[in-house]
Specification:
- By secondary structure, this protein is of the alpha+beta class.
- It contains seven helices and 14 strands.
- The chain folds into two domains: 145 residues, Fructose-1,6-Bisphosphatase, Chain A, domain 1, CATH 3.30.540.10; 126 residues, D-Maltodextrin-Binding Protein, domain 2 (3-Layer(aba) Sandwich), CATH 3.40.190.
- A hairpin with a 6-residue loop joins strand 1 and strand 2.
- The chain binds L-MYO-inositol-1-phosphate.
- It catalyses: a myo-inositol phosphate + H2O = myo-inositol + phosphate.
- Its cofactor is Mg(2+).
Length: 297
């Protein structure tokens, strides 16, 4: 495939993101049809499906040679290939959307050789756009048309000084029983507990309800880390590129995995910092202990 113009692809994804934002804002969640997938909390709506259809139609016209991996048309067992692929979540934060809670986004990623190289995340409720192209930095645009701010937002990010000084993003996800759930909830408890009781005493835990927005907040330096198992490549691909371009790192959600795959389904994102990243990852893995999440099916 001839040298790709990543800037042109990025620019098209930004236009697509704003179009998706208009679709999301024009829907009235109280009136839309919803269904469920894995269980009663794994929700899909007709708006998710309509947005993904618009996205895939526009992108397959503009880039017919690209593959497409979207949440609503994903065939279980499909692996992310090496070819240029759009990796798309039409509405990340569907539960928030269904409840009219104003925090959801479209997540548009491009992976080449299974590496995130473009990321575009747009939260229409806040008119907040996060973008990145590999080797060209990450940016946040607060209001459409305003001057993008380079990420991380701090011109001199503070060093990371361990979990006891960290604001950590977590998610409950849609798996609510079994060994993965038991491990996750045990880790949540230990993260928040006092050191005297064997905990990490984090500043606090936050759940934005969207993997993409959690990762974007870590990239911006608004949170220090995000840990989740069970989400998918389309939840993290765009944010991954934005995070890396903002100096952050993406480690595995299980101990010892320093180089996770985009479709690994177990992630630990850490913000950019002049020091302390590796130490924070290792401290976090220490909280997990000998546990390991398994999302191989
Ligand atoms: C969501 C993810 C979130 C996860 C939820 C859900 P969706 O994606 O962003 O991290 O905890 O279970 O998968 O379904 O809103 O696109």
């Amino acid at each position: 495939m001839a040298d790709l113009n990543l800037q042109a692809i990025h620019d098209e994804l930004v236009l697509v993101a704003y179009e998706a934002g208009r679709m999301i804002l024009s829907a009235n969640p109280a009136d839309i049809g919803t269904g469920t997938k894995l269980n009663s909390v794994d929700i899909v709506t007709e708006v998710d499906q309509a947005v993904e259809k618009m996205v895939s139609s526009r992108l397959s016209t503009a880039y017919p040679e690209f593959s497409f991996m979207g949440e609503e048309t994903y065939k279980p067992g499909t692996k992310l290939g090496p070819e240029p692929t759009f990796v798309v979540d039409p509405i990340d934060g569907t539960t928030n959307f269904v409840h009219s809670f104003p925090n959801a986004c479209i997540s548009l990623g491009v992976a080449i050789n299974r590496e995130p190289v473009i990321g575009v995340i747009y939260n229409p409720y806040q008119d907040l756009l996060f973008t990145a192209i590999k080797s060209h930095g990450a940016y946040m645009t607060r209001i459409k048309g305003s001057t993008p701010q380079k990420l991380p937002l701090a011109t001199s990010p503070r060093p990371l000084e361990g979990l006891a000084n960290a604001l950590v993003a977590i998610e409950w996800g849609s798996n609510r029983d079994g060994p993965n759930y038991e491990l996750k909830t045990e880790v949540f408890k230990k993260l928040a507990a006092t050191k005297e009781t064997g905990g990490a005493m984090v500043h606090s835990l936050r759940s934005l309800g969207s993997a993409a927005l959690n990762i974007a907040a870590v990239a911006a330096g608004q949170m220090d880390a995000y840990w989740e198992g069970g989400c998918w490549a389309w939840d993290v691909c765009a944010g991954w590129c934005i995070l890396k371009e903002a100096g952050g790192i993406m480690a595995g959600g299980n101990p010892g995995q320093w180089d996770p795959a985009v479709d690994e389904r177990k992630y630990l994102a850490v913000r950019g910092a002049p020091s302390g990243q590796k130490e924070l990852v290792e401290e976090f893995w220490g909280v997990i202990g000998n546990g390991a999440m398994d999302y191989s099916v």
